[in-house]
Amino acid sequence: MTERFDLVIAGGGPSGAAAAWQAAQTGAKVVVLDKAEFPRDKPCGDGLTARAVSYLQKMGLAHEITQFHKISGVTVYSPSQWELSFPQRPGMPDYGRTASRAELDTMLLKHAESAGAVVRQGAEVAGPELDARGRVVGVILKNGEKVLGDAVIAADGAYSPLKRGLKIDSDYNGYSAIAIRSEMHANRPDSDRFEIYLKLLFQGDQLPGYGWIFPMGGGRFNIGLGYVNSYKNWQSINATHFFGDFLRTLPAEWELPSVEELKKNKSVRAWRLPMGFTAWPPWRPGVLFAGDSLGAGKPVSGAGISKALESGLAAGECAIAALENGGPDDFTNYQQRMEAAWGREYKRGRFFNKLAGIPKVSETGLKLLDNHTFRDFLLKSLYKKAQSPSHT
Ligand SMILES: Cc1cc2nc3c(=O)[nH]c(=O)nc-3n(C[C@H](O)[C@H](O)[C@H](O)COP(=O)(O)OP(=O)(O)OC[C@H]3O[C@@H](n4cnc5c(N)ncnc54)[C@H](O)[C@@H]3O)c2cc1C
């Protein structure tokens, strides 16, 4: 007989693990299905914002995450150099961290398991299982096995097979970044700052994106870049070559490996980063979308880990609340939560993303940012806003 669960979660990354941990707290019978065997890598900058750190603390991982490298602020090159600090917010850390995704995601999944969730690794979801009315009632694994539940959370990442299987049309025109990164040794001192490089030129066009160097501690650095697909020629960019060009702009005395060497040891990987809500509403009967499958990446910065944790926790909580009060046909409680948390910011993000795709606009924006009078004015108002509880 097929085993039934209250909640079936496809994907055990940060959004799926957070959803599972949250739902399991209530005593619900939860299963997480991930196609990978952990520890597994995920192409990422490995940067945890202060808000991501705060969600990990809320999940009871405050002590465990002290092992990760601490980040005290951000150095931006636009191309002139300026400094940003994390805002001081009551009850919130004023620092970030960097954590390899192999370690972070394994820790999160174990945490969900110790809260009572069943974790099945090497379980690849092929698509949704529907009832006669089209409601999602479980998932079908690649080996043909069905895993059934009262509700399903699609936490299966940027290329979500559940979303594809359901042919989801979003009410909002979310968008995507293409990002590429590698971790490597650099012959330079360790640092406690995220470094962001805003000048990113492709055939003379300023791109809507940035390059980054995130210190991991112990002489290791995560280096990468990303750009959004509102730039009309984004498909002409060979991400690997472009990344190689970026590495060559960095100081020769750092003795960084070439992109060819990085390719050889398979540490350079590109991935999509969906933003601005690519699945809206964030649910359909029987299923809720969280993290990258929702298109939850933060507009402008693309920080997706804190958003995956926040939407995962909310999806876990709202799914159980709806199941207890009305059933799986209606998850508008989750929609309202997400709209209230990020609706305005993501709407602005969709608008600015379109503008930023025009190279002349991007170039002008960068010139303005490079002007310290304009920048001081802008940062003052952003800093004020950042101190409001909902901002990352
Ligand atoms: C290059 C790059 C750099 C980034 N840098 C940062 C950064 O520095 N900081 C930050 O905050 N965000 C960053 N992001 C964004 C961040 O990585 C994502 O937003 C975040 O991983 C989303 O978490 P998730 O749990 O929704 O999805 P994922 O982390 O992608 O997890 C999805 C899980 O689903 C599993 N899965 C997929 N398909 C199936 C299937 N068919 N069956 C079963 N399981 C399946 C996968 O194995 C995976 O474990 C970056 C993104 C990219 C591409």
From TrEMBL:
Among InterPro entries, the record links this protein to: FAD-bd (IPR002938), FAD/NAD-bd_sf (IPR036188), Geranylgeranyl_Rdtase_fam (IPR011777), Geranylgeranyl_reductase (IPR050407)
FAD-binding domain segment(s):
6-192
**GO terms of molecular function:** FAD binding; oxidoreductase activity, acting on the CH-CH group of donors, NAD or NADP as acceptor
Q: What is this protein called?
A: Geranylgeranyl reductase
Q: Which domain of life is it from?
A: Bacteria
> Sorted alphabetically, which SUPFAM superfamilies does this protein's record hold?
FAD/NAD(P)-binding domain (SSF51905)
